[in-house]
Amino acid sequence: AQSMGVNRSTLVTALENLAAAGMIEGRHGGGTYVCGSGWHALAHGALPNWEEAIEEGWYYPNLPEVQQINRAEFQPGIIRLGTGELAPELMPQKAFNDILHALSSRSRTLNYLEPQGSLELRQALSVYLQASGIQASPDSILIVSGSLQALHLISVGLLPRGSAVLLEKPSYLYSIHAFQSAGLKMSGIPMDAEGLHIPRLEDAVQNNTNKDSISLLYTIPSFHNPTGSVMSDSRREELLATARNTGISLLEDAAYTDLWLDEPPPPSLKARDKEGRVLHMGTLSKAVSPGLRLGWLVGPEPVIRRLADIKMQTDYGTSSLAQEAAALWFADGYHEQHMDRLRPELRRRRDLMLDLLQRDFGEFAEWSVPAGGFYIWLRFTVDPLSIRELFHACLENHVLIHPGYLYDRLDAEHIRLSYAYASPDEMEHGLHLLAQAVKKLMA
Ligand code: PMP
371: CA distance to ligand 1 center in Å? Predict the structure, then answer.
């Protein structure tokens, strides 16, 4: 107290006030402890209570089911019916070996790269984005370590704390955690067959007690996670018009856009954006490789520079090797070749899953028919069926499913299925076990 220039009586009064507020407690002969904290900050020499201390950090923990999924995915013999990534055999193994071979004879910088990421990669991305109608100069692109990082950077570097983010209900699980953990409020907007429901969006804006506090609308217009739906062309136009009228900016997540199976989705929101209202994020994770940890964010240059500065302070940039590989991937035509090969295989797996559902699930469920991406959003039409119990029953049988309540806490009737990971044999066996588990719970 002396070194801080605070006299003893001030300190005693402060401690009394904290004790009266129930924030600290004195332990006889054992010093003073901060209540409910594993850190025992005021005790001399005490070891933190680690079990309690891990509750203190501000980042939201995963639900127990997600933690179980994240562990179980690596157990041998598990059938992954919900996993949001390509099976290893669908990944471009040979192309990456060729790319790494080509890179092995190049001289390279082993230093940190510039804050926005490798210029060579941003130039290649600029050309790639141009092909889908997005005008993005290299200066308006930030390379990120997977697009989830773009959500984090935006949450902490761009959005006022306490402001509101609108998003589809349900939505991508970790976007919800990123926004929540950054102290943002969220408002879920329902969807219909054409995407975000515009009147409900307008209601959400009108009914917000503090309209100015809405900062951004986060949307996944093409092959949505978890519903698989595509926002129609006219809905995209309506959304942009509503954004203009209400002054809301948009964050478009294009993670699944290249994974169309029947026909390409309508042009992106960013491709239609004449005024610079749309931030656009993409990733190699879904169509190519999630392990590479490579994504990008396109936006107005001041935004990109600000977020690049935070990225520098966060991780000094995405791995330069991953960036070099990605630059060749786009510049040398590997991407288109891979997509041409991947689409028929993914289409076969989607059609197989739909056939199997038709065969075994018709009496107790209904589902969407996705035109691309990975996901089938399956709704159980029987009542009551506990999705939590179903999840655990499946796990006991070594089958992993993703409960709908991971994507919307109030959802009680959906699961997310994915046709991207399980092999055709596993899919058949896994869905059979799932149907059996449902029937057992219904009985
Ligand atoms: N957006 C969506 C909609 C996703 O589903 C995912 C991955 N599940 C991501 C972003 C983030 O992926 P990554 O960080 O690997 O790019």
Answer: 19
